[in-house]
Amino acid sequence: MEINSNALKLLEGELSLAGFSAEDEQRLKELEAFRITPQKELPPVEFLFRLHGRPCFARGELTGLSGKAKSGKTFVCSILMALCFRNEVLSLQRIEPTRLHVLWYDTEQSDESTKDILCQRICQMTGIQQDQFPSEQFDVFNVRQKPVNERLPSLEVAVRYRKPDLVILDGLRDLVSDINDGIIAQRVMERLMHLASEYHCCIVCVLHQNKSIEDHNPRGWIGTELKHKAFEMYECAKSSERIFTWTQTDTRKFDIPEGLSFGVNEEGIPYRCTEKQLLEAQFEAQRKMVAKLEKSGGRHNKPYADLNPKYAHKEGRKHVFDVKSLFTDIMTPGQPYAEEALKTEIYAKTNAVKDKLHDEILRQAVTEKVILCCTNPFGKKEYLLPTPAPTQQDLPF
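Request: output the structure for the sequence above.
Response:
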């Protein structure tokens, strides 16, 4: 590092006058190399990827990825690893034009599980044939059988020798014997920070969250240290059996307010999930949980929203319904619907249990002219969804 010669001479004079020891003088001289001034030229932060157009996953830094058990953390890691070989995966883009070197360091799963994810998911996502797998650019190590005290030194050797761009450390907890030992946690994080900085790579540290439903903090003292030291933190959550969400929770540079929702198909391959699919999955998960509690005799203490967020949201204490979206999904244009039949559909779509809410929703839809109300020859109310007016493209001339 460059040291200002004039400043160093001045420092030496001051130290001799102050009677500092030779050891103190040496430390202060070395400290000058770390001085930050407005004039000091520093290289810009380099990022590996973009999420929704915002740079993320910085070289030379740690990135934290946390979530409850089975919340999609390994799916996210698979997406990141596949992205190193493709220009874009879901809503993520690789910034550098050339492929990136990946090192996947798996401490949790069996050898069979690691290989299965590599062959059946990552290779499928990258389009790379298994017999053409680029081992020179993709290092995969399963170290679950190694003793705890050997896992970090082995990772350091692997990074020094292979010099990857991206390191997936799955999981961080398995580098320590006690996740609540503060001294060991601090030492491990310091070594990982030094490793990332020295070899200019991004190390993604995967860690479970605390088991309590309400507590979303990474587990243990090692999790606290990760949250303090990481350049960015991301959280994974499970919305249904096959749909997950992935969001940024903390960053030192670029905020990414919009998360990423993805589903997983029958082959185990992630795909981009729409907002509609996400809302429907969340609603279905809520209904299943309530039904399970009621069946077991437990009491539902309403930790989740009662109404489907696709069609309703709260403003203060009042529920506001999107009646246009609701009745467009329920009704076929031009076909009459009896009031009782519509109320049944309203309940099925919104989970609005109270009958007065059904009446309120129907009144709102009629008032806003989303649907039309009439009386049939038998004196019963019926409702119609008007047939949309033809657009210019529909006209024959």
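Residues 275-295 form the longest helix (21 residues).
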